[in-house]
Amino acid sequence: MFTGGTTGVPKLAALTHRNVVSNVYFQKVWFNRKEASDRAIGVLPFFHVYGFGSILALTLTLAAHMVLMPRFDPMEFHRNVLKYNVNLIPGAPTLYLALLKALPQGEMAKWRGVVEMCFSGASPLPVEAINRLESITGCRVVEGYGLTETSPVIAANPLYGKRKVGSIGLPMPGTLMAVADPEEPRLLPRGSTGEIVVSGPQVMMGYVGGEENPFFEACGLRWLRTGDIGYADEEWFFYIVDRKKDVIKYKGHSVYPRMIEEALYRHPCVAEAAVIGVPDEVVGENIKAFIALRPECKGKVREEDIIEWAKKELGGHEYPRLVEFRDELPKNLAGKILRRALREEELRRLKEQVKGQMKKEG
Q1: Are 164 and 303 in the same domain?
Q2: DSSP string, 118-159
């Protein structure tokens, strides 16, 4: 199955039948599901590992009802949830953000007593959105974490019992997770920040036809590098700080886009946000935020207003120096915002500026 290509060219991950079956049964046990008792709604594509592993394969294994939608429309989605008494919603953060943006609060409140779990994966769901979704609908928002390379789920918060908002949760049954040195083949102590690695029966054989080797050996096990920077707390709940390739180098500081995005989502006018590093001769990489405003704020908020607000919420080396408003942000078919596409746009723009400057000087 092809990876999403969010940080580069999509790669073909070799997944076995054992990989997929192991993962499905891990999810069944973890979320304590009984056969023929659930109604799930599927709007994520089945050619994406999230749609395939956590909607199609899981609902078939559970003998659950599956409500399929060929494309996402917030009002139609809402009507189907109520019409078919959907109790399980697997979705991406952009799906939940779109629902919160498009639906009146009174409409979403009708989910109370109907929707039991809103599962969120593919990318981080802002804490502000989790709190709003739970307070309005009464559903339990469960964040999980996975990769195409792991069939997909590695970790998730428990549906029942203790969970930690902002965490990706605990490792799935039969799964080992750790934090490793991003450059060296060695594991780091708990509490250290490094690259999250995983070992378990859901981990792929490797990439088809690729020279890249994402594995290393340590403590007698084969570990897969996820490409995500994070850490584990004292109870082994894991947290994602950011993608290794997305870390911004500003004046020698390592700045994490996700931290800035989380802050921006707390602004009442921000519907979507993505932060990237833009090459700069003076500071290394400048911090730029792309923002889609809520409809009621368009024309009333300026880019400068966002920057001034962010200065109060973030450290001096963290707030965005550049802000650009967009009607919407680029996403892949699973609804994941593509920082890579924004970065490529900026690089093309910089090249054009350099060419223009050279022509003037010539």
Answers
A1: no
A2: EEE-SSPPPHHHHHHHHHHH-PEEEEEEE-GGGSSEEEE--S
- Regarding beta strands 39-42 and 65-68, do their DSSP bridges make them parallel or antiparallel, or are they unpaired? parallel
Domain C-terminal end among 242, 257, 290 = 242
Whole-Å CA distances, 62 to 19, 37, 45, 47, 172:
18, 8, 19, 20, 18
Residue in the block written with tokens 């599956």: 66
For residue 239, give Cα distances in angstroms to 233, 254, 315, 324.
8, 17, 20, 29
Cα atoms found within 13 Å of the Cα of residue 17, Cβ hemisphere only: 0
- Do 111 and 238 share a domain, yes or no? yes
Q: What is the mean pLDDT of residues 183-197?
A: 95
Residue 8 belongs to a domain: no
Structure tokens at 232: 């584990």
CATH number at residue 56: 3.40.50.12780
d(CA 119, CA 121): 7
Residue at a domain's end among 215, 242, 269: 242
| Interatomic CA distance for residues 272 and 98, integer angstroms | 9
Residues 346, 230 share a domain: no
Count CB neighbours of 49 within 10 A. Answer: 29
* 44 vs 12: CA distance, rounded Å: 19
Give tens-digit pLDDT for 196-227: 999 999 999 999 987 688 999 999 999 999 99
CB 271 within 8 A of CB 101: yes
Write the pLDDT tens digit of every residue in 159-182.
888 999 889 999 999 999 999 999
Number of domains in the chain: 2
Claim to verify: residue 50 and residue 92 sit in the same structural domain? yes
Residue 312's domain comprises: 247-361
